[in-house]
From TrEMBL:
It is an enzyme of class 4 (lyase). InterPro entries: 6-phosphgluc_deHydtase, Dihydro-acid_dehy_C, DiOHA_6PGluconate_deHydtase_CS, ILV_EDD_C, ILV_EDD_N, IlvD/EDD_N. The gene is edd. This is Phosphogluconate dehydratase. Residues 66-379 form the Dihydroxy-acid/6-phosphogluconate dehydratase N-terminal domain. Keywords: 4Fe-4S, Carbohydrate metabolism, Gluconate utilization, Iron, Iron-sulfur, Lyase, Metal-binding. Catalyzes the dehydration of 6-phospho-D-gluconate to 2-dehydro-3-deoxy-6-phospho-D-gluconate. One of its GO terms (biological process) is D-gluconate metabolic process. SUPFAM superfamilies: IlvD/EDD N-terminal domain-like, LeuD/IlvD-like. PANTHER family: D-XYLONATE DEHYDRATASE, PHOSPHOGLUCONATE DEHYDRATASE. It comes from Phenylobacterium deserti.
Amino acid sequence: MHPVTAEVTQRIVERSRETRADYLARMEAARHSGPGRAKLSCANWAHAFAAVGEGDKQRMRDPTAPNVAIVSAYNDMLSAHQPLERYPEIIKRAAREVGGTAQYAGGVPAMCDGVTQGRPGMELSLFSRDVIAMSTAIALSHDAFDAALMLGICDKIVPGLVMGALTFGHLPTIFVPGGPMTSGISNAEKARVRGLYAEGKATREELLDSEMKSYHGPGTCTFYGTANSNQMMMEMIGLHLPGSAFVQPNTPLREALVAAAPKRAIEIRDGGNDYIPMSAVVDEKSIVNALAGLMATGGSTNHTLHLIAMAAAAGIKITWEDFDDLSQVTPLIARVYPNGSEDVNAFHAAGGMAYVTRQLLDAGLAHDDVMTVAGRGLRRYQQEPFLQDGELVWKEGTAVSLNPDILRPVSDPFQPTGGTRLVQGNLGRAVFKTSAVKPQHRIIEAPALVFDDQEELLAAHKRGELARDFVAIVRFQGPKANGMPELHSLTPPLGVQLDKGFQVALVTDGRMSGASGKVPAAIHVTPEAADGGPLAYIQNGDIVRLDADAGTLEVKVPREELFSRPRAQCPPSGFGMGRELFGWMRQAAGPADAGACALFEAA
């Protein structure tokens, strides 16, 4: 192992010793209690399968016959989740083939951040993760299952499913992805039209036509944002069947992988020959593997929140320092839009996750000695699935990149460090995505322009007030203030000024989209302004220095002077669009560097 990877892993183990031991003890107790159906009264158990077909009903009369839970985030508004509509029937047929049954145990909500960007609904987005976790627990609470399948793909959905499923970590659990849509217009063309629209040089009709050519069919959006970073992490953690992340939907190979999931789940159930509970898969080493994959591929900054919360659900404590230290030794070996010009389909064709896994293992930057749903060892994930004479088989993936503009070996990376950096100073702690920002834009020192919401900045842009060097401070966007919405709609106007040659950066206690890039940004600033953080005291004209290379975030104002100023007051929380229902979550939310979680203390 690389010495830094080994050291970070060991300190996570030490930091998590008590909470991890407590979690594992609870999972072992749940295992020994057995599936609840063996303890239910006949009336209780009859309720659980009253509506199933006669064949399944006869199997389910046997309390020892394996029964698999399906928890799905299907809806047909999300292109990524629309293919999930057909999965339950595929899964049920496959379970019957091996003497088991499968039941749709429950659905979880799934909102599309692409639809809610810049809209009030975005203020529900982050907390939807915690709602999904609770919904997953409700689905599994019937205690009638030997294993579980999680059907979900996008931003908050996979993290929420992981968090909820880990509370039933004694169950073997496999995540079943849907795959990316086919490629549309080039990302460069999409970005060009967005920029023209931000400058008033393209009409709304032209913009909509461009966007429809990009987002055009079933499957996950093809840029490397949070949704596709989720799929990468499920491979690195070992919760997918190997190589299943980026196989396109509605293809024979994808359907074969869907059918294989319940069969494997039944194989690894308690009482079978190869019991592999989720609690054994998600451990300290597999979390480090997810971190390594995130850094090596330039994955979404949203996972500096989500991965902390996911790990905490398994009793594991990770910090932004762990992200930063691993980023310093894990080179960036993938360039996928917005960190490059090509999409995830091109990434998959160039070697994809099999290549990335092999590179990280060979360099000692990831742990091979982990348990996965496919068995022991992450080396299994350097294989790819194929159909051979109609049968699903796995073969070794390519050992060389098939497109060095997209994938490179660790020995010749795109940059020597990973995609994310911790920046900190007298303005607090924040995250900076280095993989998407050109080196010449990673250091900026300029006067602050302070905004209390994104609408104020957009209005200033329309008035022509941003044609200068500045650092945009967009505050009161943290979890306690308004639920920490993504601020992706700020990328085009800020990018316009960057393209004009001005020094421009964003500093915010909010989030940016996992697809954001180009504009240098210190995001997730904590303590947030609503919690009395330094952003609540900064004023227009203060000189701010953001240096991603040195890892610093500072305002050139003495601490005594800064905190002697009147504290800006957080605007009242919005109402409408369901926001009033989430007041308790805003109050309960932890800080960004602890996962911004309302359900439990994450770090």
